[in-house]
Design brief:
19 strands, 266 residues, Jelly Rolls, eight-stranded antiparallel beta sheet, 2 helices, eleven-stranded mixed beta sheet, ConA-like_dom_sf
Amino acid sequence: MKALPLLLLLCSTSILLHAQNSKDKKWKLVWEENFNGSQLDTSIWNYEVNDEGGGNHELQYYTARKENSYLENGLLHIKAIKEPYLTRQYTSARITTKGKADFTFGKMEIRAKIPVGRGMWPAIWMMPTDSKFGHWPWSGEIDIMETKGQEPDSLYGTIHFGPAYPNNRYLGSKLVRVTPDGWGDDFHTYAIIWQKNKIEWLVDGVKFHEGTIANVTNIKNVPYPFNERFHFILNMAVGGDFLGNPDDSILPKEFLVDYVKVYQEQ
């Protein structure tokens, strides 16, 4: 989610892959978060609290307040609000499992409903827990799903790797669903099948993208960082380089997450 210049390039240059059904596999559920209960389980999740802008000049202040993230009816609500708060005029939430639920390989599946509207940037992604190869993006980034609120018919799946900006690299694709609210019409299931030296992206069980070690290591002196431990990040950014200024009239907006599940292949 960090490398906006690259994502902007991706928006204009990515070639849509023909969707294809993923191969049948037998999966065993090994970890799940269903967001039941009255409050977020902090034995699993960390709140990130900052106004750093995500490296993209985003406009939100991420808080740990119930106004910006809460559980209700078995759903996680991440809520972006237009309000003056410390150094910012918008608030939202970003939570991670770093150091509490870290994973290497498996099927990562998240059921969620994205918001629609200019300036909303919901994302489901993973970052390296140990940063074995160095700072971003040397140690990688896996974007399972992200969308631009003003373009809800398009979603993106991407990996980031390689040297520091402006020489950083990415491999990604865009999946289009042409309906009035696009991917924001209802809940959808977003997943990756993450194996040694290979990652596949799926939406509602249909594969639309793939990245392999060959795609990464064919670049001189660039390691393949995706065989290490990664953790989940769920957030909704507001505005910034990727989206431009938000439409204040639509706020508040909510990003809803039903569950996060991890399976291992049997």
